[in-house]
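Exercise 7b. Backbone tokens:
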């Protein structure tokens, strides 16, 4: 028997905080009522919101320099599912997991699906991996994959993506996320347009094999590991590719994949307008693709992204149905704690964005009331919606204080005993 956190334990821990939460929720309710906002409606929105957790996120990550393994790390995808299960059990915000192939390859996918279901989890978009060489792979991706100059290497990378679709079908997914590391490190190494043409040929071959109800999410990234040029470097290249491919191809926005100070919310707005927003890989950053915890460095930026999303949702923008996922590397924290905190911060941004008085905002904008418009957005951002988040969790039998309950449960120590440290584990993220 492996250790798990019981519903009784969560209820017992919650009972210590319930009366204070009720007071705080009621007080916030009165404050919001003065602004014409019904806290019950907002609490229900919070209860309905969901974001996917990446299987690779529950392992300790690392940098190019070192990886410092933590105790009780998951040894394989079944362990990862257990950890993802705890995140959902306590936060009630993460009912799906996003797998990465071949990291999560197994011989029996129905067993994996059942394991996930036993933790109230199902599978979100499958991520293909042609940015490193898999064991026993015939051709190397050192100089590229879907855009490699060698046709055989491209065929192998296409085949891998088709295998990902096959695995995804077995797991009940309906989307494939493609991020390639392809690019060049030296001017002259690669023909910039020929590489893009090869990308299109490869993606067309994958697109043609997508099941009827599937989407392919194209993930762009400015740089790294290619430091001179990246084939799908920005939302322009991604949008160009998705447009040429067709309606089942959309553009995924990883918050860390832009130049510093880029106005990401404006990119999001444009992709919504073009009906090409696939969804997100949430994380936070200070300098580049830092893969820090969502909302930890710049919560206002996260809020402004959600401001666009909620605006699109409420006006029922055509074709708007983004997939929300987290994509972070937890190098110095307990990954379960980081993911719970991140899910909570993402939900916070969603709830705050739901508080914007959109009617008043439209009026302010129409009248060029610059500061008036700004203050309406700012007022929503500075509202402490913590009682709504906690109450939404409590009503769904989650934890009022997820990290507190997790620490009190002793889950990590239990897993440290159950899961002997692996000597082979490499960096959890690249
Ligand atoms: C690349 O930096 C990325 O954001 C892609 O989504 C990968 O699948 C993920 O990180 C894990 O390496
Ligand atoms: Mn990503």
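Sequence design result:
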């Amino acid at each position: 028997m492996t250790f798990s956190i019981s519903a009784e334990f969560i209820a017992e821990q919650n009972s210590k905080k319930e009366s204070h939460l009720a007071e705080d929720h009621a007080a916030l309710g009165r404050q919001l009522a003065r602004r014409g906002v019904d806290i019950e409606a907002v609490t229900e929105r919070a209860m309905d919101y969901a974001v996917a957790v990446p299987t690779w996120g529950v392992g300790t990550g690392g940098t190019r320099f070192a990886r410092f393994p933590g105790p009780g790390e998951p040894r394989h995808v079944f362990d990862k599912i257990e950890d993802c299960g705890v995140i959902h059990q306590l936060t009630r915000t993460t009912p799906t997991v996003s797998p990465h192939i071949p990291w999560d390859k197994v011989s029996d996918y129905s067993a994996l699906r059942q394991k996930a279901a036993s933790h109230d989890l199902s599978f979100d978009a499958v991520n293909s991996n042609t940015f490193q060489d898999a064991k026993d792979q015939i051709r190397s991706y050192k100089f590229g994959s879907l855009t490699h100059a060698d046709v055989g290497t491209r065929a192998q990378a296409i085949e891998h993506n088709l295998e990902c679709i096959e695995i995804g079908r077995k797991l009940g997914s309906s989307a494939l996320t493609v991020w390639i590391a392809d690019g060049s490190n030296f001017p002259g190494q690669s023909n910039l347009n020929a590489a893009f043409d090869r990308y299109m040929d490869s993606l067309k071959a994958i697109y043609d094999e997508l099941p009827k109800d599937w989407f392919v999410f194209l993930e762009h990234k400015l740089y790294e590991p290619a430091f001179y040029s990246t084939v799908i470097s920005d939302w322009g290249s991604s949008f160009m590719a998705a447009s040429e491919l067709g309606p089942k191809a959309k553009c995924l926005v990883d918050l860390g994949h832009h130049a510093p100070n880029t106005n990401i919310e404006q990119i999001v707005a444009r992709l919504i307008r073009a009906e090409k927003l696939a969804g997100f890989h949430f994380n936070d950053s200070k300098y580049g693709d830092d893969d820090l915890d969502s909302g930890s460095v710049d919560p206002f930026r996260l809020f402004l992204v959600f401001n666009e999303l909620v605006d699109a949702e409420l006006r029922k923008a055509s074709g708007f149905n983004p997939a929300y996922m987290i994509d972070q590397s937890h190098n110095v924290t307990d990954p379960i704690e980081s993911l719970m905190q991140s899910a909570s911060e993402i939900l916070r941004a969603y709830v705050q964005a739901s508080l914007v008085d959109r009617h008043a905002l439209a009026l302010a904008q129409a009248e060029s009331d610059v500061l008036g418009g700004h203050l309406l957005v700012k007022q929503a951002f500075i509202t402490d919606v913590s009682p709504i988040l906690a109450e939404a969790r409590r009503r769904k039998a989650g934890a009022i204080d997820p990290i507190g309950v997790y620490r009190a449960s002793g889950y990590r120590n239990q897993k440290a005993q159950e899961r002997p440290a692996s000597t082979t584990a490499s960096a959890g993220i690249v």
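Instructor comment: The mean pLDDT is 97. The longest strand covers residues 249-254.
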